[in-house]
Design goal:
The structure is a homodimer of 192-residue chains.
Chain A lengths: L4 E3 L6 H4 L5 E7 L2 E7 L2 E5 L4 E5 L5 H9 L1 E6 L5 H9 L8 H5 L3 E2 L8 E2 L4 E8 L2 H7 L1 E12 L3 E2 L2 E2 L11 E5 L2 E10 L4
Antiparallel strand pairs in A: 1-10, 2-3, 2-6, 4-5, 5-10, 6-9, 7-8, 9-10, 11-12, 13-14
């Protein structure tokens, strides 16, 4: 593991997702890895930290999540804009060499089945909380975060440092069709 | 209704939420209006457009949503940072004059029970799709978007124009404790 990647306390894990970044979802089952892009990832609870993710029935990643009962949510950066678009655009179903073609670099974390995408700003390892009705009717999956890590160059002391980090570390927020916004200026409410 | 507020076609409604902004949730039942802040709002489907929102059991807005079967999700702007913080911080349960104290301005849309917050960039009127297990176990509510509107000064032709609009129109993205980020630079993936 890279020296700059450190665990995030579970009670701060929601802060990784709270500002609504686009994510990459990875999973592994029976020797098959996959990674897909997902804009529809959202925090669901603080303690235990839980999240929701929408996984379309057409995706191979969904089958890997269902079979393995686990997945990793990770946050791509401005530097990974093209990678994110490619991972969202290609399907392992029709392109068996999807991961090689996108050039994604994977790493492994002990005790985590799913691969982690190198170069992301943060990673949340999740255990699937099976909810068959949600999964079937809404493509909605619920995960409980069992461990989280972040790159200290952009997230440390329990908070993001986009305002002082290299701009390449900014989170990306997909709108539609390859159009994204990077996260911007920090602002504090006086009434907080 | 203000001249600058126009309907958003339902097949484009997901684009209002896709970049993960913090939202305000409003509802009305039996003559009682309320508005709360919610960072955990997420698109769930394109057609029909659906979304999820997490409503804690302690909130009065939740009771209004459950009783009325409807609500409005709206997107506050940088200009409404303090208002958003105030609406998230105070509770109608303990402060009957909450709305007056926060200074929020409400407007009405024909056929929509819940009030709309003036000055927001977009509004999504939703019908609750009752899912008692999700609501009880996870505080998770599913809404189907029945109508949407946006202020053309920042969203028109089916997309956001943060990069050319007055910076006061930028969406805000809460992290924790009154710390927000505004949305930033527009970026397009070449591979799109």
């Amino acid at each position: 593991m890279h020296d700059d990647i450190l665990p995030v306390p579970l009670d701060k894990a929601y802060r990784l997702l709270n500002h609504g970044p686009t994510a990459l979802v990875s999973a592994r089952h029976d020797g098959v890895d996959n990674v897909m892009a997902a804009a529809w990832v959202c925090a669901l609870d603080f303690a235990p930290p839980r999240l929701t993710v929408v996984l379309d029935k057409s995706t191979r990643t969904r089958a890997l999540v269902e079979a393995s009962g686990s997945f990793v949510i990770q946050l791509p950066t401005v530097r990974q804009l093209e990678l994110t678009q490619a991972l969202g655009h290609h399907s392992l179903h029709v392109e068996p060499d999807k991961l090689a073609r996108t050039g994604v670099s994977l790493m492994r974390m002990e005790g985590v089945a799913a691969p982690l995408v190198q170069g992301c700003s943060a990673w949340l390892a999740c255990r699937l909380l099976p909810e068959p009705h949600n999964q079937q009717a809404y493509d909605l999956f619920i995960g409980e975060v069992t461990a989280a890590w972040a790159d200290v160059r952009v997230f440390r002391d329990g908070r993001w440092h986009f305002e002082t980090a290299d701009p390449g570390w900014r989170s990306i927020h997909h709108v539609a069709g390859g159009h994204f916004y990077a996260i911007g200026e920090a602002m504090g409410a006086q009434g907080r």
